[in-house]
């Protein structure tokens, strides 16, 4: 489920021109081994680590088959948030209450945030993935789509192996190389792995306490602001200037309130916030606070991030969102057609992929304003036909 793009990977992206990818898999592995030894790993460790590595076609198929992210927010969230998951979140929240209390004390992160990730990533540790992690990482490093992300993860896994915390043959996880109950990449484990159960080891697969503390450490390192909200459902006045909405526009909570924005529950925090309309002005509406942006360091999918953030609020007592009556979503093919038209008008939509991400939404909003349409950034057939 997770589309991994960690802060460490972003920082390394500038060296992609020096990273090798492609060619025969065996030559690629030999190059990796040579680089590993140049980094100071001894030959015996390197040879043992890479001894049985193989390319995984299943990983490549999974990487290219992420159509789930083409679903709209209502469809996606209803698929992921069942009553059973709501009930299980309550159960696990009570079972590991002491760990969540510790996380709140040390990191200022609500248990709802981590329970939502735990639920979506592995169903509370029950489904962690059975892909060989080393094969997955080397396969994706060899593939030339995102070598700047996956090549460093191979060397991080090698470091974990040198420490005795990784098995090239037995460590398994998700198709994209994440390990454990909250699905962390090797670099993240090195930087943020925490011993939550006090046994002297960091076991993200077998120990919920370790996994939760490590996930909290990772969110903190990505910029989580302690003891602040992240998302809040609101109701909007019908005369709101829709061009003010979207994550690229921000005002204080007090300014939004002065425009008639009202919370469904609780009070609006007087923090910088954006109006998030995942399905346009006729669908659900949320205030997105600074912590909402941290979610995008965990996962780049707008629909996943919004769903995970909303589920976190639901776990903490927020009601089910008001679905409203949004204009029907475009199909994946229609979104791609729209993205091509937007590109032709000079907009950067981040690629023609059929996914309504933030760059596509910003381009849609610009064109809606130009055409005199309500500029709520929700792509419609009317806009598609007008372009």
TrEMBL record:
<feature type="domain" description="Peptidoglycan binding-like">
    <location>
        <begin position="331"/>
        <end position="386"/>
    </location>
</feature>
<keyword id="KW-0732">Signal</keyword>
<dbReference type="InterPro" id="IPR002477">
    <property type="entry name" value="Peptidoglycan-bd-like"/>
</dbReference>
<dbReference type="InterPro" id="IPR036366">
    <property type="entry name" value="PGBDSf"/>
</dbReference>
<dbReference type="InterPro" id="IPR031304">
    <property type="entry name" value="SLT_2"/>
</dbReference>
<dbReference type="InterPro" id="IPR023346">
    <property type="entry name" value="Lysozyme-like_dom_sf"/>
</dbReference>
<dbReference type="Pfam" id="PF13406">
    <property type="entry name" value="SLT_2"/>
</dbReference>
<dbReference type="InterPro" id="IPR043426">
    <property type="entry name" value="MltB-like"/>
</dbReference>
<dbReference type="InterPro" id="IPR036365">
    <property type="entry name" value="PGBD-like_sf"/>
</dbReference>
<dbReference type="Pfam" id="PF01471">
    <property type="entry name" value="PG_binding_1"/>
</dbReference>
<feature type="signal peptide">
    <location>
        <begin position="1"/>
        <end position="18"/>
    </location>
</feature>
<dbReference type="InterPro" id="IPR011970">
    <property type="entry name" value="MltB_2"/>
</dbReference>
<feature type="domain" description="Transglycosylase SLT">
    <location>
        <begin position="25"/>
        <end position="311"/>
    </location>
</feature>
<protein>
    <submittedName>
        <fullName>Lytic murein transglycosylase</fullName>
    </submittedName>
</protein>
